[in-house]
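Human: Here is a favour to ask of a fellow structure person. Comparing notes only helps if you start from a blank page. Give me a protein, with the fold worked out from its sequence. Please set it down just below, with no commentary around it:

Assistant:
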Amino acid sequence: MTLPRSDLQDLSDLIGVVYDSALEKRQWQMLLADLNRRFPGFMGAVYTQESEKFIGMYSPDGFNTASQAVYEKHTKDGKVHGISDDQNDHRRELLRRIDPKIGDVYYSREIFTDDEFRRSTSYKTVLEPAGIGHWVSLKFAQSGPREAVFIFFENERSNDTPDPDGLKALFELISPHVVRATRIARALRMAKDAAETFQGFLDAIALPMLVTDRDARLVFSNAAGRRLLERQVLFRIDTNDRLHMIEPRYASEIKNRISGIEQDQVPAGLRVDHGDGPVSLCIAPFHPSMTDAAQADQDLFDARRMFAIFVGSQGDDPVNPGLLRDVFELTPREAEVCSATIMGHSPAEISKQTERAEKTIRNQIQSIYEKVGVSSHQELTDALSVFKTVGAIFNITDQHMFEMPSRPT
């Protein structure tokens, strides 16, 4: 699609609106108003749902109580009253015909014939009474079965002629920016919540922290957590934003631990033998207030469904050099020296072990002190002791909590 220069400038301005609007207190208010102005003949909103069940609809003016009232009047548990289950299939039929992914754009006329659409119970019972019909949608967020979409319905009571092809084309152009802006805004809001929820701990030292939903989809991470993910030695993120452990024998451990925690709301741990040394994970229920979250995120991310993963060391295990790199941005050699130093090795011993000059080792130790923010060996030991208190953060006394999974036979 080639745009004239004037349209390119207009698109650039609209993309700016996308990022600004993602950070609004009432998220997407400005973008919805802009798109409604550009495309008369439509009624635009943000729509959230769980499988077939409607959660909420948000217009530029806020939560749409009229839509909620119509929906609640005619449905129960996501199904229209008074008809057999096999007739109540609009949403299920939609999902049989398409598999919507985050960032995808759809137009109902390309999925259903007009006759199919207008004979559906959803149209006759919910849409037609509200004066709306066919729609164009952009899916921009998902958490498990919950999803959030921009949806623009054709206003059947308006004298304006809708331009669905133009709207669909514009959605396709701005889609990657909407998805990216959503994630940026969520990360900023969640980071603020994290700082408030774990204030004392995070102020002391920023251990790698990853926050996921119940399906192990990454919601956000702190700076050390991002560096850990970038190294791709312990975790990987798949195309659906799910967090996986790279080592095959631990592949399902994160999801299994989360499932167990969801039942009893008690933290769980995992000791992982990998790479340049063992690490220990503490996985705990994460309860942000969500008061600053966008309304769509409040619908998608029930606080009970979120989990924080802290990465550290445990017991007599040495601090993993990779973690030292993630937290303090040490070089690989500095991390190696730092780990040996806090295990009690002298510069002379480290020099012999690494076959590097003792003066080089002492210079690296000084650089480590500066990066960690300490001035002595004792202060360094104290500062790094937090790596070994991952379990103690949550007052865990179960000696088997950090048990390493057995190797498959």
Q: What stands out?
A: The CA atoms of residues 114 and 134 lie 9 Å apart.
